[in-house]
Design brief:
The complex is a heterodimer.
Chain A: E1 4-17, E2 20-33, E3 37-41, H1 48-55, E4 64-73, E5 76-77, H2 83-86, E6 94-97, H3 101-104, H4 111-123, H5 127-140, H6 146-149, H7 159-171, E7 177-181, H8 189-206, E8 209-214, H9 217-223, E9 226-231, E10 234-240, H10 241-246, H11 251-258, H12 299-303, E11 309-310, E12 316-317, H13 321-331
Parallel strand pairs in A: 3-8, 3-9, 6-7, 7-8
Antiparallel strand pairs in A: 1-2, 1-4, 4-5, 9-10, 10-12, 11-12
Chain B: E1 4-19, E2 24-40, E3 44-48, H1 55-62, E4 70-75, E5 78-79, H2 85-91, E6 95-98, H3 112-123, H4 128-141, H5 158-170, E7 176-180, H6 188-205, E8 208-212, H7 216-222, E9 225-230, E10 233-239, H8 240-245, H9 250-258, H10 298-302, E11 308-311, E12 314-316
Parallel strand pairs in B: 3-8, 3-9, 6-7, 7-8
Antiparallel strand pairs in B: 1-2, 1-4, 4-5, 9-10, 10-12, 11-12
Classes of the chains: A alpha/beta, B alpha/beta.
Chain lengths: 340, 333
Amino acid sequence: MAEKLLEVRNLTTGFLTDKGFVKATDRISVSIEKGKTLCLVGESGSGKSVTSLSIMRLIDYAGGVILEGNINFKGQDLAAKKQEELKEIRGNKISMIFQDPMSALNPVFTVGDQIAESLSLHQNKNKDEAWKEAVELLRMVGIPSPEIRAKQYPNQLSGGMCQRVVIAIALAAKPELLIADEPTTALDVTVQAQILELLQDLKEKLGTSILLITHDMGVAAEMADHIAVMYAGAIVEQGTVEEIFSNPSHPYTVGLLQSIPGFEGERGGELYTIKGTIPALGNLPQGCRFNPRCPHVMDKCRQVEPGDIKIGSEHFTKCWLYEDKEKAAAALGKGESNHG
Amino acid sequence: MAKNLVEVNNIKKYFPIHKGLLNRVVGNVKAVDDVSLSIREGETFGLVGESGCGKSTLGRVILRLQGATEGSVKIDGRDIHALSHRELNKMREDMQIIFQDPFGSLNPRFLVKDVIGEPLKIHTKMSAKEIDERVVELMKLVGLDPTRRNRYPHEFSGGQRQRIGIARAIALKPKFIVADEAVSALDVSVQSQVINLLMKLQKEMGLTFLFIAHGLNVVRHISDRVGVMYLGKMVEVGETEALYANPLHPYTAALLSAIPKPSPTKKRNRIVLQGDVPSPANPPTGCRFHTRCPFAQEKCSQVEPKLEEILPGRQVACHFPVGVEGGSDLSKL
């Protein structure tokens, strides 16, 4: 197994609200191998962005508190570090791309200046060197005539180009981990295709690991090596991209995949729906957090919250259904997967 | 065949660009440029395209929420851009719109019963009690709990708010509804609920839909016919299944191939378009797509292709349509 670059264990992050302390993520455990892509998928409010902000420890600035858990990045626990110490890691070793490229850039500086700023901050380059490299980075992310574009302001660039600039800034210090929070959601599909292709290219060329956050199962299928499905603050299923798509196991994952209208076959029929809506994080149901919407709900689901149940070599699901299936599989002499 | 409920003929919508001290008009943003289409009774016509292609503007012009620069729109045989305001108001009972943003399209100071009941108050002579009864009926119809009618929109989730918008749109039993990105802002699990609701209502009430969206898989699911727009022009129109299986315009082909599909094992033959959509204030000469088209030839930059029926029920505006003899060949990419 490849070396683990990032290992998050039992990460619980919360916010203090007027209704008490609300857990936005609940004991999240994920890991990313070197040069691989992990996709966090889930609907709005499932805690994807809070997870990514927690890893960067930017959650401190958003009013959040990391209650427990550790964030192991190359042997260092980011959860235990001081903000001052994190400055060496943020931007240098781990960098981030946000959803809205227009608001991620400063409107009163040229895009070249903004890339150069990142270079002179993190790599102590002088002004000329930094500018030259900024132009090179723009070329690398596929912006035509980068010498001219570098002197322009964000409002003179299209959304897709701005996102390329943001990616160039993120890559300036050659980070080992790139966190991309819905990087293509604000873009049109043909531009999205360009940006996804660019990210794949860069990943292969530079060996960067990517934590990609998306609500689009299509994007996840395309980009991910591993997928973690989040629901109401917890990871309910995780596994390799093949495991998740060919053998979705948690009823939520199954429902999510089935409610997407397809591109082939029958059309116009009734779509599969998951009844109800996502519960408020301050008011989670007892037991399994999906139980009020689950078509297979059992008594146990209403009382006890399930833990991770292993159903494949790297495939885990939090669902009581598989407690029995595992027993059944063991009885049949199958599923004796080697741990670790 | 069912008759055409909506007929759009050569609609143009230009937005003037003002500049300078005297605020002179120095040009036009050609948001919709000479588009014609027809929608049959009881049909769902899907309109797709990327942002800025003019699909929402077209939807608004069709309902005369905005005036047209040129052209006519006939709904149920009446040219709605020629109607007086009084006649138009009467006509509005038959044509309604559902908006994208379930947050912005509901007045936050209105109770839900007032939001849904307002069209009834304006257009009918129903008493307060009758309106209340109808609101209860409508809320049940769209899957909302009628006991919550005395609450404000912010107390509802995004999906529920979209249902409120739908209840308001169908309150007057219209014939024609424009759904402008009606499900785009919703999460997938909620989106499928709302799609099912729209299709159920269509069946029960015999509604005709113009379904504007950029989610191509949703449009495929719900529409009988689909029109593809690019930079203010209609580039292809056809029956849904035929169009998705066999796109004739290179833009349609690229658009369809650009969507990430939720199946990792499928081999992808993606056409990645270069560059961005040009500005509609200064569209390219000839075919508007020629600057990004992988098959563009000299003719494309000079002569503008007309939207022509080249197969039964299939119109395309391209000099070299895909898969037609002498046309563009996707396998050569």
